Amino acid sequence: MTTTAPDRPVPCPTILWPCPSHLRITLITAPGHSMLVRLSGELDIATSPGIKSALDFCLSLDDSHGVTLDAADLTFIDAAGLRPLADAHTLSRRRGQWLRIAPMSSALYQVLSLTRHTHHLLDCTAADPSDTRRVAPGASLRQR
Would strands 66-77 and 34-43 be described as parallel, antiparallel, or unpaired? Predict the structure, then answer.
């Protein structure tokens, strides 16, 4: 096991997903037939196709139970960047999987609040970033 920061262990294998330079998307195989998608940078109209394809890929894996989206290092998101998250949420429910956002940056929290998408993505947020279980609908939004 390697680490990217003192408190953030990264299990292997890790894939750096292709995307414009102002967003870094890292896919990490997580325990329990799930994927961790770590975002760093800006999620906007230029980078939203990249995150959409990454989330679609993770949710299409035959043995995937779900995806955890680590959005702690997301510095900017606009309405165009929110669309792929809402689409992935719908897709995961349709396939009987889960999508969880943990932890959430203040930028993402603000956009969810301002666009009133909190009720659509509310069951995607985990109260505890280390929680690997599915988060129940109605969980409170937590920001980092």
Answer: parallel
